[in-house]
Design goal:
279 residues; single chain; 47% strand; seven-stranded antiparallel sheet; eight-stranded antiparallel sheet; mainly beta
């Protein structure tokens, strides 16, 4: 199945999920959500942008799994910088455990060469909130499929401060002005980036995205936030040090993203997060 599957809420198409994209190997091919839209139809994701052509809507990507690149683009090498390497992996869709109009449960393999490094169990659900907002609830469970320890890294753990991307990541559309960035008790990209917070928000031209860690473990991961250079938000699996996973071990994270029409203020964003995470 190469055609995207569709997620709907009350008859509105709010997201498309691309299962098997036809991409160059250095893009680290993987399933992803794009376009994702507000209930009124405003797109809030971007794919293959000129500034970072390996950014693919909303999904899960890690730049360093045991030295293999599942993010796309160049690899940051300590004392050398961004380097083009033949080390890209692929996330392969293996099948669905469940498919409904408003969500799915998927099995994936993370493959480097012909070796399966990780087995992933991914759950995605589109949840109605209000007449002007809905939530994308994404949980991923990554299990070490090898007989040895694997570690997850990022450019930050490999020597580039402030670049702890890898894990859940959402690339928002580039607009004429950078989006507003705020959190529960902070304002601006500099204050929010790298912080551990219950939620962070991007507010653009006619839309707001509010990203919330929905488990205690997820909330311990710092946020990776970009606004001035390009608009994107992620939850960092490996920030200060590599994340080590024993053979057979599993890493689980859950991020709930509120997708709203208009520009929300802090109180409205917090209220929608509470509704999205706790019901």
């Amino acid at each position: 199945m190469n055609s995207p599957m569709v997620l709907r809420i009350a008859g509105h198409t709010v997201a498309r999920y691309v299962l098997r994209p036809e991409l160059a190997p250095d893009h680290s091919p993987r399933p992803y959500l794009h376009p994702v839209s507000t209930l009124s139809g405003v797109p809030v994701t971007e794919q293959l942008p000129e500034d970072h052509p390996h950014h693919l809507g909303a999904g899960v990507a890690v730049p360093d799994v045991a030295g293999f690149n599942f993010w796309g683009g160049r690899t940051f090498v300590r004392d050398q910088g961004p380097t083009a390497l033949d080390n890209h992996g692929v996330q392969r869709h293996e099948g669905f455990k469940l498919r409904d109009p408003d969500g799915f449960v998927e099995e994936l393999s993370w493959v480097a060469g012909e070796r399966v490094l990780l087995r992933e169990h991914r759950t995605v659900a589109a949840v109605p909130l209000t007449d002007g907002a809905w939530a994308l609830d994404l949980t991923f469970s990554l299990t070490n499929a090898t007989d040895e320890e694997l570690s997850f890294g990022s450019p930050a753990t490999n020597g580039r401060p402030g670049a702890a991307y890898g894990g859940f990541f959402w690339r928002a559309p580039l607009e004429s002005a950078a989006p507003e960035v705020f959190g529960a008790d902070a304002d601006g990209e500099r204050a929010v980036h790298g912080a551990r917070a219950d939620w962070v928000a991007l507010a653009g031209e006619g839309w707001t995205l509010v990203f919330a860690g929905a488990t205690e473990e997820t909330r311990r991961d710092p946020w990776f936030v970009r606004a001035a250079e390009y608009p994107g938000v992620g939850s960092s699996l490996a920030s200060a040090e590599r994340l080590r996973v024993a053979a057979g071990g599993t890493v689980v994270r859950r991020v709930v993203t509120v997708v709203a029409d208009g520009r929300l203020d802090r109180d409205a964003a917090a209220a929608l997060v509470r509704k999205a995470v706790t019901g």
